[in-house]
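INTERNAL AUDIT FORM
Audit reference: QA-55
Scope: verify that the stored structure record matches its stored sequence.
Auditor: D.O.
Record contents follow.
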Amino acid sequence: METPGRPPPPPQPSGTVKRRRWGGLRQQWKLLGLFEIDQQHDFYGLTCRMKEGLAAAIHTSTHTPAANDLSDDDFRSKVTQVHKDFSLETFGGPVFAALRASLGITEDEYLQSLCSESCYLQFISNSKSKADFFLTNDKRFFLKTQNKREIKFLLSNLKIYVEHLRKFPHSLLVKFLGVHRIRIPPGQKKYFIVMQSVFYPDERINARYDIKGCEVSRWTDPAPEGSRIIVVLKDLNFEGQVITLDRQRSWLVQQVEIDTGFLERLNVLDYSLLLAHQPLHHDERNQNLSFASLIVRTKKSVNPGSSPIQGGVPGAVLNDDAGPEPDSGLTSSQDRDDSSRTSPRPAGSGADSPDIPDFRAQNRRLLPNLKNPLHVIDGPEQRYFIGIIDVFTVYSLKKRLEHLWKSLRHHGRSFSTVSPQEYSRRLRRWVQDHTA
């Protein structure tokens, strides 16, 4: 009701209404260590250009017929698209399009997530890295800036990375989905990668850890009790805890051994095992741990509020007569059939271990059409999100000298800068010691 003698308030501009609508969300994100990149943010112009460039790049891959087999030219591919005030280069476009398809990510949903009208989020990390981290508004994909050396390393090893994922489709290695460089005149240029978020969906995650298997500088002060601030904890914060998986333990231990063996051959170190957990719903606990029930429970991870699935599980994989993975250009259909019948062995192992048949079935237990099934592992009481990230640090002369200096400074204590062989052994040992 208008007050007598006082003019009515002027109509609110649509922009004001929109700012009010998002204002509450911005405050909530700030509490979580996430900041909306709105028009007042320093990265607003950059991220708008990234979105525009990615939309054009994805449109190109959507309208390019997928190749049955990837060629050397596909791995060396570099496409530059010029826009009004910037240009975007896409490296290995056909390879990453095929990889996305193999993960069950359609180009339309990739486009919708990366290029929606909703603002990106900036993730404030306690990492020592100078990289910038952006998160799509639905929190499904990370965009991370990288330096030229790291991008060159990834592209030079892209073929063996793709081959590793072909042999071990449920590898814990982070899934890279795109590599790009944006140029903004007169002289700004940034390389960045797009990758799948390990912690998705994150609505009920109650603790996150970055594990390197050592002790020096591996403690982070937890968030105050009752706070909603996201803090990624470290090795020393996890002491006294255990990852309880029961029959799934052997799968995790062997897959970590396979993946760290691969990284050891790449001569890299300083990568991290990301770990998060959330409690299972009451109706999910104490079920018969058949592979069918594992699939049911994994399905539930993408819909935290869902009710138990009744009846049979369509597409459940319980034996060696499994259906094919989603089709992509990564391999031929014959290669995929052969791969699905071959059980992965731990790096350096000899004869098959007694639990390899169980391991083989477990390695194919997840339905490929879920949004993020590859990093989800259920135990009796907790659901765990696990992935290996930051795989770009080569054991160079600089790192060897850093190892020598730290050996003198931290004598008798474990630190991150060690040889790739020792680094992989130590992380495998940490997983063995902290799982049950």
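Auditor finding: record pair retrieved intact. The longest helix spans residues 44-62.
Action required: none
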